[in-house]
């Protein structure tokens, strides 16, 4: 189900105030899953990671209220050459976590990754207790490829993750 009111755009320095406000309102739903920036210095450091061709950060928003951030999606650690792979991470805000916002936004991100970025594969690593995120990624046709023990260090603890991937069957390797 496509929502024509939902759109994506790359995160920019001008988003700092709205981003920080959205993250502060969303701390309860982010607990255990993600630690987004909550102040201007952390936001600036966060944004700096996406100032290259290997890492992208996007905002999901409603076209009628573009200042309200509904979700964040990142494509990181893009590896080119014979791999053509990127890692997908995402999190909703307080404003977008109970809607189809993330589903619709992620569909657009997948199209961007497989179209504009010409990636062959996207990977997503999700903690096994994050049922909502697992349901979302499976609904987007990602396949579970395995389980990694103590995969990422989140909230002062090494956490296990399930590994998912989506393959772009229309990928054209550029020579």
Q: What are the salient characteristics of this protein?
A:
175 residues, alpha+beta, Aminopeptidase, 7 strands, 37% strand
Strand content: 35-45%
Q: How does the helix and strand content classify structurally?
A: alpha+beta
CATH architecture: 3-Layer(aba) Sandwich
CATH class identity? Alpha Beta
Assign a percent range to the helix content. Answer: 25-40%
Rounded mean pLDDT score? 89
Gross morphology is globular
Query: Count the helices. How many?
Result: 5
Strand order of the largest sheet: 1-2-3-4-5-7-6
Could you say how many structural domains there are in total? 1
Summarize the main sheet. 7 strands, mixed
Task: Return Rg in Å.
Answer: 16 Å
Low-confidence stretches: none
Distance N to C terminus: 36 Å
Order of helices and strands: EHHHEEEHEHEE
Strand tally: 7
